[in-house]
Amino acid sequence: MNERSLSTTTRATVPIHRRATLWDRLLEPVLGVNACFIYVFLYMPIVVLIAFSFSASPFSAVWGGFSIDWYIQLFQDSEIARALRNTLIVASFSMLFATIIGTMTALALSKFQFRGRNAFETTLNLPIVIPDIVQGISLLMFLVLVVHLALGLPTIIIAHTVFNISYVAVIVRARLHGFDRRLEEAAMDLGATEWQTFWKITFPLIWPGILSGALLAFTLSLDEFVVTFFVTGPGATTLPIQVYSMVKRGVTPEINALATLMLVASILLVTLSILLQRRRSS
Amino acid sequence: MEKQRERGQLALLLLPSTLWLGLFFLAPLGIILVISLVQRGGPVAWQLDGSAYVRLLDPLHLKIFLRSLTLAVLTTFVCLLVGYPLAYYIAQRPPRLRHLLHFFVLLPLWANSLVLTYAWMVLLRPEGFFDSLLHALGFAEPISLLYTPTAVVIGLVYWYLPFMVYPLYGSIEKFDFTLIEAAHDLGATRFQAFRKVLLPLTMPGVMAGSLLVFISALGTFVVPALLGGDKTLMWGNLIQQRFLSTPQDWPLGAALSLAMMLFMSVGIWFYFRVNRESA
Question: What value of ipTM does the predicted structure carry?
């Protein structure tokens, strides 16, 4: 829109005929300093953590020299390797299930009006709103008391798929929002079946949304801790659970290295997901 | 015929999510409701009983509720106090810089929150970053913030500040700044222009941000578990303990979970009410 004109008018909020008070002169610098402090506050822990992971004296503000020892130790740790494998298994399966189910749900919601639609949508959004601790505990109770399912990787996958369905549905629906339904109708009129129409018309147009939903689901699963904490079982340690138990045992330099790698991985994945979401179909 | 086919298609598309959410989300919430209404013992005895809700009001638990509420309100307040000027500042930048600054506020939200909380442990712990920094600067007295309520508030503000800035920025960016000029032309001071024009018109952002931060901070579990230690337990930690640590009391834990959700629902209801009135 008229972003440029807006930004030029905002610069001169003080009318010329009014004498600038002390406040007027101080406001801009004060706001600037506040902003600086906040960005330092937001990024200091991240920077310090990364720096420490490469420091020979891993917890002191005094630089102890460059070292990649902690990373070497980390890669030799078989517990970590197993946790990484578990995390990737859980993230892949829950991404797969949630992407399929979430996309189907989004398609249904964008295409049909039906009775109970409001109630359905509310339920669909609830897993995003309800505190993770309640989700974790309630699923644990259900698994233990009702279905008697052994806790382990499958139960973690089940749990992650629940909230991932909601997130994927939200993102794919946003993509379907600008979608021209007449394209599908035209394809059907020309004799395509529903299935053909989906794969030839709908999917090629909404795939960036689906992919970005899938990536988000993968990342959320990779990072999820609280729900996992409750529904995990013996031998089913994921990376966040591993970090938590290591931290509880005592802070060690290896955690710095592991935490750094996890930070970098999730930030990369989410940036990718956001870029995909922004991408307009040409 | 067409109608029937559409109906079949709809059912097919919605079946998997209905099953999954019904079985692994709604049914478990139902179980929690049932557990809250039965007797305690081994760790539950299937005997109808409302005493869990009486135990909820135990002074010890009330103390933890009060602490959770205080910390959540404090967190919301701090986030608003620093978040509003930040959102205002960002909204006043040229477009390109604006998008960049906004992106960098939201980025930490996507990093692993457990890892970020751990990073704060590294900063705050005795002989950690701050301690050794102060020591190197010549201060002999060590500060140990870790395992204090202050550390919890720092951690919570860190986690939830983006939740505050996001809606605030959304409403401030839409604000028409020529209105401020108009207010000045009519003789309003800067403060009056803020109070009578900017603040009322960006109130939806303030409300949305505060609600998001408040209910999230209230339901938190990781931050007090890592930064608060045993002395700064919050509501979420209490729930976890009653389910998993001795003395186990599942009905109480279930009642605590429901009470937490009820509290949050009231917040959300209040939010929509105020929004509707101001609209």
Answer: 0.88
Which of B85, B110, B181 is opposite residue A267, by nearest beta carbon? B110
pLDDT, tens only, A133-148: 999 999 999 999 998 8
* Per-residue pLDDT tens digits for B92-123: 899 899 989 998 998 888 788 888 998 898 88
Task: Tell the CATH topology of B54-278.
Answer: MetI-like fold (1.10.3720)
Tell me which chain B residues have a C-beta less than 8 angstroms from the C-beta of A14. Answer: 184
The domains of chain B are located at: 54-278
Task: Write out residues 165-194 of B within 8 Å (CB-CB) of A.
Answer: 177-178, 180-181, 184-185, 189-191
E strands, B13-55, are 38-40, 44-48
Low-confidence ranges of chain A (pLDDT < 70): 1-20, 61, 279-282
Among B235, B257, B238, smallest CA distance to B34 is for: B257
Domains assigned to chain A: 13-70 (no CATH), 73-278 (1.10.3720.10)
Does the distance separating the beta carbons of A23 and B191 come in below 8 Å? yes
Q: Is B110 on the interface with A (CB under 8 A)?
A: yes
A38 touches chain B (CB under 8 A): yes
Determine whether the interchain pair B24/A159 forms a contact, defined as Cβ–Cβ distance below 8 Å. Answer: yes
Q: Which residues of A touch B108 (CB under 8 A)?
A: 42-43, 46
CB-CB neighbors (< 8 A) of B250 in chain A: 141
* Of the partner residues B13, B101, B130, the one whose CB lies closest to the CB of residue A104: B13
- Residues in A closer than 8 angstroms to B107, CB to CB, are 267, 270
Q: Find, in chain B, the residue whose alpha carbon is nearest to that of A16.
A: B185
Question: Lowest mean pLDDT: which of A250-264, B24-38, B215-229?
Answer: A250-264
Q: Is the dihedral of CA B101, B106, B112, B114 positive or negative?
A: positive
Higher pLDDT, B272 or B87: B87
Q: How many CB pairs under 8 A join A and B?
A: 245
State whether B116 and A223 contact (CB < 8 Å). no
What average pLDDT does range B125-137 have in this prediction?
79
* pLDDT reported for residue B107: 86
DSSP chain A: --HHHHHHHHHT-S-TTSPP-HHHHHHHHHHHHHHHHHHHHHHHHHHHHHHHHTBSSTT-SS---B--HHHHHHHH-HHHHHHHHHHHHHHHHHHHHHHHHHHHHHHHHHH---TTHHHHHHHHHHHHHS-HHHHHHHHHHIIIIII-PPPSHHHHHHHHHHHHHHHHHHHHHHHHHT--HHHHHHHHHTT--HHHHIIIIIHHHHHHHHHHHHHHHHHHHHH--HHHHHH--TT---HHHHHHHHHHH---HHHHHHHHHHHHHHHHHHHHHHHHHHPPP-
Scan residues 36-75 of B and list those with Cβ closer than 8 Å to A. Answer: none
What pLDDT does residue B253 have? Answer: 94
